[in-house]
Recover the amino acids of this structure.
């Protein structure tokens, strides 16, 4: 039976509609139509609006279950159950630099989760190990290296249909490696990199389409050496994620990047969880996580990221919504199903109030 939702306004991802209803059936949007005279299985919200649910392209765990240490379908279910309450309907479980064995266990877990329902998990994001040690951040230095073709082929073959994104440092990966990854329809993101401006641009022109957490763990913008940060902001098409928590990136720096990049900038949480197990031990330090004294992850939810973009960065509400939904959907090549309210799109939606508080999640 179709479910009908009505609020003061509906944000479709492209425009605001007043006095409209969203009709959902079988987890898909059936119709968006004027609410006058609508009856049936109707739920109405006062002093609120309906918008597309959030998407998080980089998150490592939840509820003290770090996915790299607990690579099981149960961990993925815990992550989904946690995130959907916060308005995030689609996410990429992410693993920092680790052993190939751990990566393969994570691939197995995603496959297992898929066979059990596959709800909310877009695919697996491998952040490493093909990074630059000089920009490792909290990643394990001993496991970071330049890849061989044989190593890459083995991992990609094992992870076929599961690995959706890999973060690499362009300067440590050959053209052949980059082309091999792209041939598996995997999104390549540049990050944890000391790439020069030219090395970064060359990588983008080869097909690297996104950049991982702009400004963090990369060659910075300088007037004599624009680096990966400068190349990212100056390139006409490459997209970049950014962590709007005020710790990873100053809110004013987010505002500057937004003015330059416009629709090419999207939000991620880069959120970890408290854990004292395994090689990555994240401990809460105020409103951020640290590992061995190094900034290692955020405490953000995508809802908090959205609110920060509006209240701390000064982004208009509708654009902040796009930065947390439509633009990550574009980065993940899923904007035909997510990021908009239109017939055929996902029926998972959020209902923020006038103060941007989360009143309900439609799922």
């Amino acid at each position: 039976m179709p479910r009908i939702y009505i609020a003061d306004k509906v944000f479709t991802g492209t425009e605001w509609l007043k006095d409209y209803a969203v009709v959902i059936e079988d987890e898909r949007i059936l119709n968006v139509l004027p609410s006058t005279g609508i009856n049936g299985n109707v739920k109405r919200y006062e002093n609120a609006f309906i918008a597309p649910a959030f998407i998080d392209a980089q998150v490592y765990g939840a509820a003290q279950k770090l996915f790299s240490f607990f690579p099981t379908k149960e961990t993925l279910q815990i992550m989904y159950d946690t995130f959907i309450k916060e308005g995030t309907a689609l996410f990429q479980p992410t693993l920092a630099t680790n052993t190939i064995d751990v990566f393969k266990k994570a691939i197995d877990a995603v496959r297992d989760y898929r066979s059990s329902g596959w709800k909310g998990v877009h695919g697996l994001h491998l952040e490493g190990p093909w990074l630059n040690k000089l920009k490792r951040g909290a990643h394990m230095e001993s496991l970071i290296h330049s890849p061989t073709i044989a190593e890459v082929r083995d991992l990609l073959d094992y992870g076929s249909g599961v690995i959706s994104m890999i973060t690499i440092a362009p300067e440590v990966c050959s053209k052949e490696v980059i082309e091999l990854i792209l041939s598996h329809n995997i999104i390549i993101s540049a990050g944890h990199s000391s790439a020069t401006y030219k090395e970064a641009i060359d990588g983008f022109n080869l097909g690297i389409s996104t950049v991982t957490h702009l400004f963090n763990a990369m060659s910075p913008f300088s007037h004599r050496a624009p680096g990966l940060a400068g190349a990212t902001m100056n390139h006409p098409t490459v997209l970049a994620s950014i962590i709007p928590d005020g710790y990873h990136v100053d809110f004013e720096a987010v505002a500057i990047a937004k003015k330059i990049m416009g629709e090419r900038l999207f939000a991620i949480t880069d959120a970890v969880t408290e854990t004292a197990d395994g090689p990555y031990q994240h401990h809460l330090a105020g409103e951020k996580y640290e590992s061995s004294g190094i900034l290692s992850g955020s405490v953000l939810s995508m809802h908090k990221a959205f609110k920060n973009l509006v209240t701390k960065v000064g982004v208009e509400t509708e654009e902040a919504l796009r930065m947390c939904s439509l633009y990550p959907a574009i980065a993940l090549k899923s904007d035909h199903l997510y990021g908009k309210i239109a017939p055929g799109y996902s029926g998972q939606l959020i209902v923020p109030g006038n103060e941007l508080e989360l009143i309900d999640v439609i799922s």
